Structures are given as C-alpha cells and as structure tokens.
Amino acid sequence: MTSWQVRDEAKVKLKNPILVEGLPGIGNVGKVAVDFLIESTKAKKLATFFSYTLPHAVFVNEKNLVELPTIDAYYTRISGRDIVFLIGDVQPGDEVSCYEFCEAVLKFSKNMGCKEIITLGGIGLQAPPKTPRIYVTGTNPATIKKYMIEGVEKKIYGVVGPIIGVTGILAGLAEKEGIEAVVLLAETFGHPLYLGVKGARALILLLDKKLKLGVKIENLDKEIKELEDETLQRTRDVTQVQETSKLSKLKKIKEEVNYIG
After folding, report:
1. No. of helices (H) and no. of strands (E), the chain
2. Can you say how many angstroms the Cα of residue 53 is from the centroid of all Cα atoms in its chain?
3. Residue 230 and residue 235: Cα distance in Å, rounded?
4. What's the fold here for domain 4-260?
5. What are the φ/ψ torsions at residue 147 (nearest 5 degrees)?
6. How much is the pTM?
7. What gap in Å lies between CA 209 and CA 214, rounded to an integer?
C-alpha cells in the first residue's frame, strides 16, 4: 500500500498528454526549468501529491505565512496537446518513498492517458561549465532518437554513474506501465547549494524546440533570475531539515548500540 495520496485540483480530460518532471536535484536544473515553463505557459494546477514521509517542516512565504512542502502537477494545452509539469519543493526522502512516489506518478499518468514522460536532471561537475552539454538516455532507442538534436549527446555510458532519485526511478519504472520515458541531463556544478541556471536554460531551449512551447527567449534569462532566489532559499531550508533528520537518526542508532553493547 502506497504512502502517497493524490488530490485532484481540476477535473479535465487531457488530450495526448506528455509529462515533464522537474524536482529538486543536482544544480536544481530540472526544477528551475520546469518552474519557468509553468510560469511562461500559464499552466494551471492539476493535482497535488502528499505523503507523511515529506520533510517535517514548513516554509515561511513572502506573505509571512506557513506553507507545507508540496509536489504538484500542472497542465497547459499547446498546439492541441496537453503538457503536464511535475514540480515540487522536495524529493521523497528515502528509497522506499521514492519508489512509492514514482509508482503513484505513473498510475496518475496512465489514468490521464499519458504515453510518454520526460525526466530532467543534472550531471555534477567539479566546476561550473561555460556551455553545459545535455545528455539523453531512456527506455528505448526510438524514444531517445526523438530528442537527438545538435548539441545533445547520447553516449552517456561511462560519463555518469547511477541516476539517483525520481529522475532515474520514474524513467526506470515507466516501461512496465507501458509508458515511454526519456531522461535529459544537463551539465552543472556539483555543489549542493549551486543553482545551475545555464543548465536549466539549455534544457528549456531543448524542450521548447521539441514540444513547440513558444518560449519567449528574450524573457528567459530575466525570469529565471527571479526564480533563482526563492529556489535557492528553499533548497537551503530543505537541506538543513534533511541533514538534521539524518543526524537525529544516527544519534538514536548510536544510543541504541551503546545501550545494547
């Protein structure tokens, strides 16, 4: 039994939908990219995902009010097709919760009639790249081929290690549900508090070209900068909560070991 609840925020029938995931991760490239696309396409909230395994903390927003960490789905219709964006403040906190969350997302996607998903993530480098490259992998060669444009690398084997978290697991579980999946990874600096704006920009331009999103390039850099401060602050807050939780668990284990031994 899954620990995740899905609450519908809108009753709509979607047309040939495709899901694009952008949760926090390396450089937050996926989150920054999807945040921007939600704003620029004026996407509307479709559903909210909730679990008691989310971090035990709230954010204080610019109105000085508390907000629980959320993971939401938004939708927008472009050229007769619906694009569903999966965005959130956090990722599931442990391995079991991650698998359960991805299964909940895939069930949600299947019920919508979604036959393809795109997950976004970063490849952490030792220094910020001047011109981030994008690598692509996925569930089958035909799906990968659709995203092969100039500047996109498909020879990813040996370049990156395991793709950790929702970006990897969502794609990995998709095939058994009959859903095609592609993973787009942008190079970025590997520091946990670094925001990979250049990597996010590269992902946005690729998605704009392939999905015909109509992104206004002249607004891209300005709007990404506006998203940057809020994203960075929330990343710091969540990181602090998760590290505190880990330390508490380690302390408890140590006390139990000392007591037994």
Report:
1. 6, 11
2. 17
3. 9
4. Rossmann fold (3.40.50)
5. -110, 10
6. 0.85
7. 8
